Amino acid sequence: MAENRFTRRALLKAIAAGAAVAVMGPAPGRALSSPVTTNILRPPGAVPEEIFPAKCIRCGRCVEVCPYGSIRPPDVRDGIFAGTPLIDVTKIPCYLCMKCVEVCPTGTLSRISQKETRMGLAVIDKHSCVTWNQELALCRTCYNVCPFKEKAIKLDQLRPVVIEDFCTGCGICTHGCPITVKSGRKAINIQPIYAFKPVKW
Ligand code: SF4
Ligand code: SF4
Q1: Angle at 180 between CA 179 and CA 181, to 5 degrees
Q2: What is the CATH number of the domain that holds 162?
Q3: Among residues 45, 94, 161, 192, which is most buried (max CB within 10 A)?
Q4: Which protein residues touch ligand 2 with a CB less than 6 Å away?
Q5: Is 141's C-beta closer than 6 angstroms to any atom of ligand 1?
Q6: Is residue 97 a part of any domain in this protein?
Q7: What is the pLDDT of residues 76-115, one digit of tens each?
Q8: What is the DSSP code string of 121-138?
Q9: Which of 95, 104, 181, 179 is nearest to 145 (CA)?
Q10: This prediction's pTM
Q11: Which atom of ligand 1 is found nearest the CA of 120?
Q12: Domain check: are 84 and 29 in the same one?
């Protein structure tokens, strides 16, 4: 795990870049649109993306406290989003330890539980999933690794099906899926969800 950790130097650079952009504004031509996209997500409990870069002070506490090195802020190429926390679940997913939401001093990550977490929604690409497109394939990796197996993901005639109301978007299934397609995506990918949606378990 150690080699995957975001280094302190890299963190400080990203934070400094974010602070500079906040003061001076983004360089001409630099990104103004959010880097949040399929499989690139905010940590648990995040406020809506529209206000995230204004509310996050880029203190780096969430990055430092994550024991898995899941959170990696983008650099200055992402303009006003530099230094804010992102999780690329294809590299290291969120293991839902919930430490980051405890240390965030601004409420940009609010203190929610594992089950309340909605970083995104897992979506199966049935054309790429071998279990869906090959009669005899027996892969059930996404089902097997899901921390909420039988709640967030079930098997329908031995094929995985995501249950929208209970999927946390942690990305553990995406990370584990053995199928990578040309775009770099997997056969199961996480679509970001911005709004916090509580559910009854
Ligand atoms: S289906 Fe995937 S993203 Fe959803 S809770 Fe299970 S492992 Fe996490
Ligand atoms: S891990 Fe990937 S290939 Fe295997 S069943 Fe799940 S989506 Fe399909």
Answers
A1: 115
A2: 3.30.70.20
A3: 94
A4: 124, 129-131, 139-142, 160, 177, 179, 187-188
A5: no
A6: yes
A7: 888 999 999 999 999 999 999 999 999 999 999 999 999 9
A8: EEEE-TTT-HHHHSTT--
A9: 95
A10: 0.85
A11: 3
A12: yes
